[in-house]
Design goal:
Length: 470
């Protein structure tokens, strides 16, 4: 059966019907739609079917779900993507030659570097992908694809970011293999050996390795529950001239802290005054409220590069993320991506897009938020019961920062845990110089924070009475 003649399910029919009504202006912004019960009756379907249809419309960015109130027309409207400018320059250098193989502006293509995608149509590969179920089937392409990433997913992300008050131009968003890939592109483009980059302290340790490879001087800025310490930042700005400051706004790895409004404004003021860029890692944004203060929303992507990912909320094996920023910077990042990796996986990006459009991702996030909240609360209570110090956070996330009494040796803690096949992330790893500035600490992933073997080990190591399992 061809794509055009496929039979639509009742959910698909309702989604398309409401989407057409929205596009025709049948509803006003913020207008409340009929309740699930009423809409189900009007469409002759079950309440579950109607709820799934509404969820898909929320996933498309057409509706907003308000807890206890119902579904409303979304405020979000973005301009359509601009048509790409024709590539009129001769493809005679390495960059333009590779760009033409990806973007395909020329009709006759003897200069291509691989067989045409049509040669793959009868292959086992096409048959395999055709068996994958998707509510939005479309022709599978086996060419390189654009280095910018899968177009429909990029447009959906622009809508999503506008819901966070972050407007993105069509050429201001690039799909990546995740946050780490985005950081790598930014470091390659914006730094040179000998430059200085500020980072959170404690902070994201893979970033330290990337900066070390780039021969960049790393300066840590003290981090607490509300974000970077502005006094520490101001003092170090008097000694250094950073190219950029890389920070994680919310669900901070490793402390679990968030960025307060006052810290956000203070950080932006210092960036403007001292002339450095801010790189905002927001990898957990999809499970956090869209109304949280974000640097990219305050700055409107003038001095901020904004990074997001699906790898933390879907699967670590689905390497799919993005970087958003000023078009003149993002275009350079796209070129670097192109000459280093050619492109990201369009098959992965289509898979993620279909999950979003079908409402599956939205339902997954609801379940994930609940699990994170429960695990965070339970882990916090267990650590407190053991008499350990924790950095509190107003927003539940994947991580808690736990500090030990002064007599605890961090290396001995990890060595003893290893003997019992218990993996601990020592606090010193999260400091650029590998030395913590206080007591021994560890990052705890809340998904594993109440494992009885972990809790019993800590009790024994700390000399606490073993809890009666009864």
């Amino acid at each position: 059966m061809s794509d055009g003649s496929r039979r639509l399910s009742r959910v698909d029919q309702i989604v398309e019907k409401v989407a057409l009504m929205v596009e025709a202006g049948a509803y006003k912004t913020f207008e409340r739609l009929p309740s699930i019960r009423q809409a189900a009756r009007e469409n002759g379907v079950s309440k579950n079917t109607m709820a799934e249809a509404y969820d898909r419309l929320v996933a498309r960015g057409l509706l907003e779900a308000r807890a206890g109130s119902g579904y409303y027309m979304a405020q979000v409207r973005i301009s359509p993507p601009l048509a790409p400018a024709p590539h009129v320059a001769a493809a005679v250098d390495g960059v333009s030659l590779l760009r033409e193989q990806l973007e395909k502006h020329y009709e006759v293509r003897p200069g291509d570097g691989r067989p045409p995608p049509l040669w793959m149509e009868g292959s086992e590969l096409r048959r395999h992908f055709a068996n994958a179920k998707s509510p939005y089937p479309e022709a599978i392409q086996f060419g390189y694809g654009s280095c910018w990433g899968y177009g429909p997913l990029r447009e959906r992300l622009r809508v999503q970011l506008l819901e966070r008050s972050i407007p993105v131009q069509p050429d201001g968003l690039l799909l990546t293999h995740g946050v780490n890939h985005g950081l790598d592109l930014i470091i390659r483009h914006l730094t040179e050996p000998g430059d200085t980059v500020f980072v959170d302290e404690p902070g994201y340790y893979p970033l330290f390795s990337k900066l070390t490879f780039a021969k960049v001087q790393i300066v840590g800025i003290r981090r607490d529950r509300d974000g970077p310490d502005l006094e520490d930042l101001t003092a170090k700005l008097a000694l250094h001239r950073p190219k950029m400051f890389v920070t994680q706004s919310h669900g901070h790895n490793p402390t679990g802290g968030s960025l307060s409004p006052s810290r956000s404004f203070g950080l932006m003021q210092l960036a403007e005054r001292w002339g450095f860029l801010l790189v905002e890692n927001d990898a957990l944004a999809d499970i956090l409220p869209s109304t949280l203060p974000r640097l990219a929303a305050l700055d409107q992507l003038n001095r901020v590069l904004y990074l997001g990912s699906f790898s933390k909320t879907l699967s670590a094996s689905l390497r799919c993320g993005y970087v958003a920023g000023a078009p003149e910077i993002v275009r350079r990042l796209a070129d670097i991506k192109m000459v280093t990796l050619v492109n990201s996986s369009e098959h992965v990006e289509r898979f993620v897009f279909n999950l979003i459009q079908a409402g599956h991702y939205l339902r997954h996030l609801r379940r994930l938020r609940g699990r994170v909240e429960e695990a965070c609360k339970a882990t916090f209570e267990e650590m407190e019961r053991l008499g350990l110090s924790l950095m509190e956070s107003s927003i539940p996330g994947f991580y808690l920062w736990v500090e030990f009494p002064e007599h605890v040796d961090e290396q001995e803690l990890c060595a003893q845990a290893s003997k019992q096949s218990i993996f601990i992330s020592p606090g010193s790893v999260f400091y650029p110089n590998r030395k913590s500035r206080g007591r021994a600490a560890m990052r705890v992933n809340v998904a594993h924070g109440t494992d009885p073997r972990f809790i019993n080990f800590l009790q024994e190591f700390l000399g606490r009475p073993i809890r009666d399992s009864a």
